[in-house]
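#structure-requests
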Amino acid sequence: MSFKVVLTTPACPLKEVIKNNCLEVLEQDHGSDWEWDIFMTSQVTTMRDAGPILPEVKNIIAIASGKGGVGKSTTAVNLAVALAQLGAKVGLIDADISGPSVPLMFNVEGEQPSVKKGRRKEHHHPDYPIWSQTDVNRFFLTPTDSAVVWRGPMASSALRQFITDVEWGELDYLLIDLPPGTSDIHLTMVQTVPVTGAVIVTTPQKVALADANKGLSMFRQPQINVPILGVIENMAYFSPEELPGNKYYIFGKEGGKKLAEKYDVPFLGEVPIVQSIRESGDTGYPAVLKNGLTKDAYMELAESVARQVAIRNASIQKTSIVEVKA
């Protein structure tokens, strides 16, 4: 006998508890002679209305940082793949038009979106091994070694066109890897699509935290008003491959955690400095696909982000029900 249990998020922390509880009840009612196959699936929640823009995308998540060099794109790439590994349908946009790095991290920097009937469509790389393993398969690509020198309005128009013209299909999460700092791109994003929430990436040292403060505050401004899903502390500590149990806090300690506490937002987790993360970014094979310390870190981050999205959607739904009853 087999049946399916549908959860509201692929990162449900009670997944195994629910499965075991089901087995216990079944064995009590029918005895232990039966063989049960329980398939734990998920249907990601959303509070978006199906409008004309991205009607089949359930949740849009902005990945942001106050400054460059904190590993925001590396985090976005591995977070996207980790969410897909959890069973979600995931899309990823590299919105840093002047300095895109996501194509390099997936080894598709030579590819560009194809055009059909005046609308951009995703272009699949036939030799890329990850296509068959995840649903992370759409990118904002620019030609290799080409410099994009555009004024703010031109860049904003390009991002708006890419978001609206690509046939993204049905997605549980669409991640947007924003450029560092605060710019026209950020305003364009929130004016074009309803963003579920933002994830702030920072490193522990004060100079990064000072800029992360500004980035976080930007999303809370009235003209933007995007909820903060949480803070990720990247490069939290250094662990040599041969001594994975050793931690060296070369950039300071718990800076991201303190930032989250200051603004009363969730602390989503930390990622260490490991040589394999850098190597994975250079070779175009995300570190989360390799077993070890980094895989565990990114999978935990993905679970944290998915839970925060589910909590926010449930909170909005509860508020809406109360308002209707009143």
